[in-house]
Amino acid sequence: MSQGGAAGRKAAKPQDQGWAWMVLLAAVVLQGLTLGFSSCIGVFFTDLQREFQASNSETSWFPSIMVAVLHAGGPLCSILVKKFGCRFAVMLGGLLSGLGMVSSSFCKSITQLYLTAGLITGLGSCFSFQAGVTALGYYFVRWQTLANAMASTGISLGFTLWPLLSQYLLDEMGWRNTFLIFGGILLNCCVCGAIMRPIESHPQAPKPGGEPGSRAEEAQLLNGASPPHSLLQQHTTRTRCFQALQKYLAFDIFCQNKEYQVYTIGVTWMMMGFALPHVYLVPYAIHSGVEEHRAALLISVLGFINIFIRPLTGLLSGHRVFRGRRIYLFSLAVLLCGLSNFICIISAEFGILILYCVTLSIATSGVGALVFQVLMDVVEMDRFSSALGLFTVMESITILIGPPLIGVLVDITNDFHYVFYTSSFFLISAAFFMGLSFCALEKKNKLREASKVPLDNPSRCQYSERPTDPQADSQPPPAVVYITSI
């Protein structure tokens, strides 16, 4: 065995063993503290309305901003991790999350809550969550898929426990003191970050030769007539900004890859209705006469079912039968989400709402397990991180505006049924759009492949959205850490 191979084994020693499992435990806790935290906001909906004399639309901006910032902050978190490392990003996120909730306990208006709990806590949760998932990629190589699947159970645990804890604290000491306690709980993200100590052998992305677009273009300028220093500096700044956008927000993929284009638009449209039941289910139950304790239990049911169904969905979708067809499973799960909303429209009795939560939880488990796996199927792996940046930013826009817009409709009609009608419309239409569009693209690809003749010009029939090299398909993809936030 060569000395280089022995050195490689020594450098990789911390991975997949020992302290790596402590990092995995920290990642489970992080996902419960960050993504799971947003599940409890509906418990405070009615109390915040009374406190600030706010409408449904005004109150719903608070959770919308929090969840939207949690998604949209992905590119900023990537830059932070690159500059300072995962441990720093996780601990900074914990400080911001705790500060945001402590500040929220002193808010005098609903608009102040948008800034403290919405923006500051949402951004802190984004840093802690996404940097924590990235750290798993450093500590796990062989067992990376298993580690990500186990870490995602933290989301389901958070969905189960946060609403119950919230309702208990709300009854005992009011929402202000509860938010103060939440600030202290979220500071535990800093403890999780401290566990994620750096290791010597971080996987490094291959550096492109010559940094196209910056060094090459600057060399061309310098070889000709030398421009003024200020002009060269402005050109360099513009070039670097363009490279940053290309790296973290891949607009070129969106314009060239039809599958990515359809999928991104479909998921963005879907998010207009996906978050609505999570925001308005508890207010709807209380408005219909369900006791507050039992109404909070509904969200916990959603999380509890997810703990068991999400791993099963991941195993099912990984079967070779569904390879290349996961988009249809995903569309089916979205369709089931939309159809399940009609259950609670029939009646607001607690038993019916429990049935609704079970059905919705099964469907959302499929959506959560597949949303980023499908993205990996339609985008080349070496551009996945940049495609993910644009994907999360676009979906955050509809997450932000969806609940407040529907809140206006509820304020006008005083009827919560419109929440579920609207959610069903967006979910069902998105499911049909994605399913039928991918079916059409698949048929189009088959027709192009069938019409190819060796003597023809290859450029006439080339489909540039997916790699067609059979050797590339046979090689295993590089290790990629993907973020599941649904």
What does this structure look like?
The protein is an all-alpha fold and 486 residues long. It folds into two domains: 16-198, Growth Hormone, Chain: A; 251-450, MFS general substrate transporter like domains (Growth Hormone, Chain: A, Up-down Bundle). It is built from 21 helices and no strands. The chain has helices at residues 3-11, 19-33, 45-52, 56-72, 74-84, 86-104, 110-139, 144-186, 188-195, 215-223, 229-248, 251-256, 258-274, 276-287, 292-317, 326-346, 350-378, 384-413, 417-450, 458-461, 470-474. It is globular and about 65 Å long. The two termini are 45 Å apart. The model is unreliable at 1-12, 202-227 and 455-485 (pLDDT under 50). This is MOT6 protein. It holds the Pfam family MFS_1. It is found in: Membrane. Keywords: Membrane, Transmembrane, Transmembrane helix. It comes from Smithornis capensis.
Task: List the defining traits of the structure above.
mainly alpha, monocarboxylic acid transmembrane transporter activity, globular, Growth Hormone, Chain: A, 486 residues, MOT6 protein, 77% helix, MFS, 21 helices, disordered N terminus, transmembrane, membrane, disordered C terminus
